[in-house]
């Protein structure tokens, strides 16, 4: 029991069963934790119905109401740290992230010397597919903006396909992570980098979802824009991180 894939869900009934089956079909020893925010479409019920098929490998934590991506991952991180997992992954439920790339993210940490590995759209070999031009421009512009403001040497700081080694999550003060939306991914990577951990980027192809609905909103984008400034300000002038 060393590899845990955390998948936050909200109304993912069209994707979740196939995602679970695909991850387990890799036969790489991955366990899965679904953190479901009370999906009214029955996502949680689907997962619980599959648990007898994957005993001691498929888990679900159900929360009341939509509480945000960041809090879902922090909930999952704490759950993982209370057990013996050594490699903890973040992944979307909608197949924007190819489950087969979990193996490459794991290898970058387990054998490549990285403390954090990021599935990156913006390193050589990485790309996006089926995105409208305005979203592609927004995403790439955000990655450039983050590098300019934070000086962090990560080309895809907003990426949500990540592997953290246990020591990184044990070292980060998770109660000090402030953002819950778009900026959460940036803050986690920035904090790991400032603490001296090595971040490696693994090229992936990010494919826009085919089933269900995107959770992106103007509020999430706004948090990302102003959150980056707050993250750097806090780093330069706020309290020292542990």
TrEMBL record:
Gene3D superfamilies: Spore Coat Polysaccharide Biosynthesis Protein SpsA, Chain A. Residues 5-171 form the Glycosyltransferase 2-like domain. SUPFAM superfamilies: Nucleotide-diphospho-sugar transferases. It comes from the Bacteria. InterPro entries: DPM1-like (IPR039528), Glyco_trans_2-like (IPR001173), Nucleotide-diphossugar_trans (IPR029044). PANTHER family: DOLICHOL-PHOSPHATE MANNOSYLTRANSFERASE SUBUNIT 1 (PTHR43398:SF1). This is Polyprenol monophosphomannose synthase. It comes from Chitinophaga pollutisoli.
């Amino acid at each position: 029991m060393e590899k845990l894939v955390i998948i936050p869900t909200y109304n993912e009934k069209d994707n979740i069963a196939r995602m679970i089956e695909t991850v387990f079909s890799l036969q790489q020893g991955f366990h899965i934790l679904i953190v479901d925010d009370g999906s009214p479409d029955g996502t949680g019920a689907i997962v619980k119905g599959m648990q007898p098929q994957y005993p001691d490998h498929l888990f679900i934590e159900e929360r009341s109401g939509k509480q945000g991506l960041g809090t879902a991952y922090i909930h999952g991180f704490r759950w993982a740290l209370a057990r013996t997992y050594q490699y903890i992954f973040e992944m979307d439920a909608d197949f924007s992230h190819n489950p087969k790339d979990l193996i490459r993210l794991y290898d970058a940490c387990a054998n490549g010397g990285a403390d954090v590995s990021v599935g990156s759209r913006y390193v050589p070999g990485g790309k996006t597919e089926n995105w409208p031009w305005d979203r592609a421009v927004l995403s790439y512009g955000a990655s450039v903006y983050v590098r300019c403001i934070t000086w962090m040497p990560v080309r895809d700081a907003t990426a949500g396909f990540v592997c953290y080694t246990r020591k990184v999550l044990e070292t980060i003060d998770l109660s000090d992570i402030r953002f819950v939306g778009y900026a959460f991914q940036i803050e986690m990577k920035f904090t790991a980098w400032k603490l001296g951990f090595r971040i490696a980027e693994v090229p992936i192809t990010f494919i826009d979802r085919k089933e269900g609905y995107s959770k992106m909103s103007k509020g999430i984008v706004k948090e990302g824009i102003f959150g980056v400034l707050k993250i750097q300000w806090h780093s330069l002038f706020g309290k020292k991180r542990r």
